[in-house]
């Protein structure tokens, strides 16, 4: 089970304005060691801007972000030693092969001699690039480039990884491999802040998510937490052995039930209570004398939560 | 952990692997040299390593190198054929050397600097600059790495031409000192141009302007290359006689000091352009400005010494002229630098505030080197004041011992220094007040602030000039008090015609008063910057420092120390 230890990323009252455009507004959240934190929002929501600030590539207009206790504004050099950033583009150098590319970044992070050699070996092994050591990076496929970018991001063994759309443009196999790699990094105790448009994948790999729209963080927590915070109503599917009209009439008379419909032998309804109220509803239906065969409350997916929390606004 | 397939990288990194080393002393020596070179490469700037690898695989580099080599061969064959049998007794060396120098100067002044510019600009275009800037490389290391990789290219081009140049030494008419001077001019010129190109590459962040800047840079490099070629031809044609004159070496030292300090200033400026905003980007620049000021003082002192030595007590107008020259150079320099420094952003980052001195008495002086428009304003004024005081003191001393007399008089020199000082203090001060006022409403970047100063100066020169030139009564009346805001006319007339011609008795009241008013109006904000207190270092930083100290391994005392693989 995931046990939060200490926050490796602390975002505090972060604001970033570009003239009249408010890219990030009053954003605060924390990411703990060993946690994968999903960052979701529509295009232009401020995800990349806030990630760039945390990665010391941009400065906030107001507020601060701490990485392992160091301010990204005041101590970017200390932050950089602890942080790996994988942007949503792959920076290509001409006339370089895979191992030279990793070697350059290992040197740039101050790794020397055998320490560097081991770091390169580990990065290539982790990202399954062993067989491509001498291949020019311009000749790599999109998936291979993403692996190499991940290898570059983790070359100095940072405690914090910030991955901006790492799965964009990848085929299903590459996505699954990437998901596994990120899971292993989190299992090693690293904090991973990841943004993606592929919500099903984020739901699978993230311990918590933050939903952002128009620069504002609308909700933070696990999918269930956000779901319960933002929406208490849920869809319930019911099947009884009796004539449906009787149960439909019974339900219509109740105040806590709405949007009642009968489809494919099932009564579909919207219930405005939580799990305890749903249990009470079931007990009351049974006590009334209906023979209940099936009673299921639909679990909300990340997509449902996202669609509910956001309003599709862009700046 | 799996094993990586053998690569050139792995092979190169296998330091100290002397298993099966042959007994031959030569091979032992070779292995020793190889080990030291590997150790040196281990500690080389990462950008130098990367760019050298890239350059060696680059088609552009290979083609240029081959063209240089081919041209050298052609020049050799044609030259020898042209000179014919006379080669044994005719002075064919200078002509051949000029040909090789012409071939060399093209890649050194055009290809190498432009490649340096492109290497920094390409980082922006290829989206690799972000990746580079979040590594632990400092901005200075990035600039130095780019520059040293340009140096490596330079060395490769030189290696193509050097056998031919060595060949000219065997011919008549060329001596070693001429060849050395020629190569020094070519290399120093190329390094300087590369540094300038890197600064332009660092400034040109916007992709849309890159094409225009590239064209402008090529034109500038072509012009500079033409100049260096001309200088080289003069060196060849003059021969070595000039090197026996002490004046030549004095001038060479002056030029070298300008070169070194300007190079340092450009390097610091390029590093400042790509540094993170909270870093202290101003102090290194101000140190280099002080170095240039010290050089200016040195040149003046050297010039005084030479003149006094050669003329004895008959220096006449020399000292007054020296004060005027110093005041002109100093005020122009500090106005330009001050116009940039007063455009700095007024808020000192917490990071810089941590490094402020804790001593209250010492802080206002050290704070002049800190970032900030107020500190910059006072820094420029303080330096100009010191420069003028020193030169005036020297002139007054010379007057007292009876060295001076004649025109311009020492009185003119004193007036000139006071007026020049007043103009710089007033223009920078009022310009800064305008910038401060604008910053209440809009964002004023450093470039805009610099332009505000320039516009203010041009207005102060242009408006009274236009008024006087369009007035029938004033047009032919020479200098009038209408021109008191015009430093060019006022100082020019003062130096040329003396104090009375510019109504110096009136101006000596008006100009310094205006300067002091400007200074006083700025003092509140200047004092706010100078009296900023040192902020405590966060506990997390102290903890981190302690961790680093505790975990610090044995550090090599020199790049020749070879890392041993831990057991």
Structural features, described:
The complex is a heterodimer of chains A (315) and B (567). Chain A is an alpha/beta fold and 315 residues long. Chain A has helices spanning 47-54, 76-82, 98-108, 113-126, 142-153, 172-187, 199-205, 223-230, 244-252, 275-288, 302-309; strands spanning 7-18, 21-32, 36-40, 62-67, 70-71, 83-86, 160-164, 191-195, 208-213, 216-221, 234-240, 257-263, 266-271, 292-297. In chain B, 73% of the residues lie in helices and 0% in strands. Chain B is built from 20 helices and no strands. The chains are: A alpha/beta (315), B mainly alpha (567). The interface between A and B is large, with 53 and 48 residues.
Shape verdict of chain A: elongated
Mean pLDDT across all amino acids of chain A: 86
Span of the ends, CA to CA of chain B: 17 Å
Helix content bin of chain B: over 70%
Contiguous helical run count of chain A = 11
**How many distinct helices of chain B?**
20
In order across it, which strands form the biggest sheet of chain A? 6-7-8-3-9-10
| Distance between the ends of chain A | 39 Å
Work out the radius of gyration of chain B: 29 Å
Give the rounded overall mean pLDDT of chain B. Answer: 85
Order of secondary-structure elements of chain B? HHHHHHHHHHHHHHHHHHHH
Whole-number tally of structural domains of chain B = 2
Strand residue percentage of chain A: 25-35%
What global shape of chain B is seen?
globular
Structural class of chain A: alpha/beta
Given the helix and strand composition of chain B, which structural class is it? Answer: mainly alpha
Summarize this entry quickly.
Chain A is of the alpha/beta class and 315 residues long. Chain A is 36% helix and 28% strand. Chain A has a six-stranded mixed β-sheet, with helices on both faces.
């Amino acid at each position: 089970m995931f046990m939060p230890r200490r926050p490796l990323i602390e975002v505090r009252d972060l604001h970033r304005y570009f003239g009249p455009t408010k890219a990030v507004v009053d954003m605060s959240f924390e990411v703990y060691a060993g946690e994968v934190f999903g960052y979701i929002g529509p295009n232009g929501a401020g995800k990349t801007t806030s990630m760039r600030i945390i990665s010391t590539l941009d400065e906030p207009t107001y507020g601060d972000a701490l990485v392992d206790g160091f301010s990204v504004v005041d101590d970017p050099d200390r932050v950089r030693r602890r942080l790996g950033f994988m942007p949503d583009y792959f920076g290509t150098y001409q006339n370089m092969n895979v191992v030279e590319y990793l070697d350059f970044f290992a040197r740039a992070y101050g790794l020397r001699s055998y320490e560097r050699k081991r770091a390169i070996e580990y990065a290539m092994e982790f990202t399954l690039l062993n067989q491509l050591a001498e291949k020019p990076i311009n000749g790599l496929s999109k998936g291979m480039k993403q692996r190499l970018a991940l290898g570059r991001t983790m070359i100095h063994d940072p405690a914090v990884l910030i991955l901006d759309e790492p799965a964009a443009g990848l085929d299903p196999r590459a996505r699954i491999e990437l998901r596994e790699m990120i899971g292993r990094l989190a299992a090693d105790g690293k904090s991973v802040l990841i943004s993606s448009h592929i919500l099903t994948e984020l739901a699978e790999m993230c311990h918590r998510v933050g939903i952002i729209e128009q620069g504002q963080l609308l909700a933070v927590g696990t999918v269930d937490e956000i779901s319960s915070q933002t929406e208490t109503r849920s869809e319930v599917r019911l099947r009884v052995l009796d004539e449906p009209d009787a149960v439909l009439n019974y339900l219509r008379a109740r105040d806590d039930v709405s949007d009642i419909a009968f489809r494919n032998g099932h009564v579909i309804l919207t219930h405005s209570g939580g799990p305890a109220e749903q249990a009470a509803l079931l007990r009351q239906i049974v006590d009334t004398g209906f023979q209940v065969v099936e009673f299921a409350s639909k679990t909300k997916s990340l997509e449902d939560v996202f669609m509910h929390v956001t309003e599709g606004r862009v700046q | 952990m799996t094993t990586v397939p053998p690569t050139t990288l792995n092979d190169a990194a296998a330091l100290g692997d002397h298993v099966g080393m042959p007994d031959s002393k030569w091979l032992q020596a070779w292995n020793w040299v190889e080990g030291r070179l590997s150790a040196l490469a281990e500690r080389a700037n990462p950008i130098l390593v990367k760019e050298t690898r890239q350059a060696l695989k680059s088609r552009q580099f290979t083609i240029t190198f081959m063209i240089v080599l081919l041209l050298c061969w052609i020049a050799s064959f044609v030259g020898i054929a042209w000179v014919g049998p006379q080669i044994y007794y005719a002075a064919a060396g200078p002509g051949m050397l000029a040909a090789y120098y012409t071939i060399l100067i093209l890649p050194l002044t055009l290809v190498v600097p432009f490649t340096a510019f492109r290497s920094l600009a390409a980082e922006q275009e290829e989206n690799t600059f972000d990746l580079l800037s979040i590594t632990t490389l400092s901005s200075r290391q990035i600039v130095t790495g780019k520059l040293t990789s340009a140096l490596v290219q330079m060395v490769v081009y030189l290696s193509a031409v050097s056998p031919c140049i060595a060949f000219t030494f065997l011919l008549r008419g060329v001596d070693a000192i001429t060849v050395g001077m020629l190569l020094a001019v070519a290399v120093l010129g190329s390094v300087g141009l590369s540094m300038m190109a890197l600064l332009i590459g660092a400034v040109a962040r916007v992709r849309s302007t890159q094409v225009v800047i590239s064209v402008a840079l090529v034109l500038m490099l072509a012009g500079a290359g033409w100049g260096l070629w001309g200088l080289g031809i003069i060196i060849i044609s003059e021969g070595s006689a000039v090197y026996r004159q002490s004046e030549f070496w004095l001038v060479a030292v002056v030029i070298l000091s300008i070169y070194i300090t300007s190079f340092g200033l450009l390097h610091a400026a390029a590093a400042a352009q790509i540094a993170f905003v909270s870093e202290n980007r101003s102090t290194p620049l101000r140190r280099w400005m002080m170095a240039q000021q010290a050089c200016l003082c040195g040149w003046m002192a050297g010039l005084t010494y030479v003149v006094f030595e050669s003329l004895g007590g008959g220096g006449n107008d020399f000292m007054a002229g020296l004060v005027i020259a110093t005041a002109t150079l100093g005020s122009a320099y500090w106005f330009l630098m001050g116009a940039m420094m007063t455009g700095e952003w007024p808020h000192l980052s917490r990071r810089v505030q941590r490094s402020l001195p804790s001593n209250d008495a010492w802080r206002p002086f050290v704070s002049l080197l800190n970032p900030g428009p107020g500190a910059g304003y006072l820094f420029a004024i303080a330096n100009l004041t010191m420069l003028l005081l020193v030169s005036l003191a020297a002139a007054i001393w010379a007057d007292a011992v009876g060295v001076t007399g004649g025109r311009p008089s020492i009185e003119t020199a004193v007036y000139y220094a006071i007026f020049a000082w007043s103009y710089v203090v007033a223009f920078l001060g009022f310009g800064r007040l305008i910038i401060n006022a604008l910053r209440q409403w809009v964002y004023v970047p450093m470039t805009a602030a610099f332009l505000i100063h320039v516009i203010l100066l041009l207005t102060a020169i242009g408006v009274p000039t236009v008024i006087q030139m369009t007035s029938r009564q004033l047009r032919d009346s020479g200098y009038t008090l209408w021109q008191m805001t015009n430093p060019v006319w006022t100082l020019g007339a003062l130096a040329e015609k003396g104090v009375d011609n510019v109504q110096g008795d009136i101006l000596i009241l008006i100009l310094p008063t205006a300067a002091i008013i400007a200074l006083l109006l700025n003092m509140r904000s200047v004092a706010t910057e100078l009296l900023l207190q040192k902020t405590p270092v966060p506990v997390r930083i102290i903890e981190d420092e302690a961790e680093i100290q505790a975990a610090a391994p044995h550090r090599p005392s020199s790049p020749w120390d070879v890392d041993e693989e831990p057991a």
